[in-house]
Amino acid sequence: MTSDPGPGVLTRLDGLLRQAPADRSGALWRLAEDGRQLDANVIRLLPHAEVAAHVEPDLDVLVQVLEGGGHLETDNGREVLAPGCTAWLPHGARRAVSAGADGLVYLTVHRRRPGLAIRPAPVDPGAAPGA
Question: What's the start-to-end Cα distance of the chain, in Å?
Fold first, then answer.
């Protein structure tokens, strides 16, 4: 017997928002089913909160705005986020997200993250050989 519920409705936005404390920012829901190939999260940013600029080196991310509003900033400029907006953030692209006065709720979907990998330290071109 498996704990995987199979295909179907996993959550409802109105229930998530009603159950989560009003001052809670961050992931309100995560896809956690065994054997999945995707990761998905419903994220809430409180009014004027932000996700600082960063680069996701390994994964393309799809973002669907569900509620509220704000801005998405990439190397292509700054764009308004509003309910119904869908954004694609390719791997390697710099991105930052900020919430407006009403906060921001959005869904992210991407390939399941690979397991942790030990990467070699970056080479310092100014270091002496053998240092």
Answer: 56
**What is the CA angle 99-109-44, rounded to 5?**
25
Read off the tokens for 38: 């995707």
Both tokens assigned to 121: 């330290």
Q: In the predicted model, what is the mean pLDDT of residues 52-77?
A: 96
- The chain-wide mean pLDDT, for the chain, equals 88
Helix (H) or strand (E) holding 17: helix 13-19
How would you classify the pairing of strands 50-55 and 94-111?
antiparallel
Amino acid identity, residue 100?
Answer: G
Averaged over 59-72, what is the pLDDT? 97
Residue among 89, 80, 119 nearest 107 (CA): 89
Beta strand spans in the chain (E): 26-30, 38-45, 50-55, 61-74, 77-81, 86-89, 94-111
Distances (CA, A) of 109 to 38, 43, 46: 7, 11, 20
